């Protein structure tokens, strides 16, 4: 499937004293990329939640290959990993401005009914927007 590109400039507050991005910030980078990708397709997290569906992260895997540093411009390539059902999975690659692969990641999110707190199938309108 086609990938979606998001750019993030590393802020000083996201780094440690050595100027290296703190590992916990990568989850936020992935969330930003995922939300932008879905938004570009016309799928709003906010509207989904207003319609009774939330998407909590069920699984997060990161493989750190090289450090991202203060002032780097990160390019995050986001790709849907298969057809969503109760879960939706994404694969990511994070590159720096020199096109070096820094991080590979995978997330699994679950479609949940807001009121019942139970998993549900991917809404049909999401599948339609994904052209699946």
UniProtKB/TrEMBL annotation:
Species of origin: Salinimicrobium marinum
Entry-linked Gene3D superfamilies: Hotdog Thioesterase
Name listed for the protein in its UniProt record: Thioesterase
Taxonomy, superkingdom: Bacteria
Keyword tRNA processing assigned: no
GO molecular function: fatty acyl-CoA hydrolase activity
Record keywords: Hydrolase
SUPFAM superfamilies with a match to the protein in the record: Thioesterase/thiol ester dehydrase-isomerase
Transferase among keywords: no
Pfam families: 4HBT_2 (PF13279)
Assigned protein family: Belongs to the 4-hydroxybenzoyl-CoA thioesterase family.
PANTHER family, alphabetized: 4-HYDROXYBENZOYL-COA THIOESTERASE FAMILY MEMBER, NOVEL THIOESTERASE SUPERFAMILY DOMAIN AND SAPOSIN A-TYPE DOMAIN CONTAINING PROTEIN (0610012H03RIK)
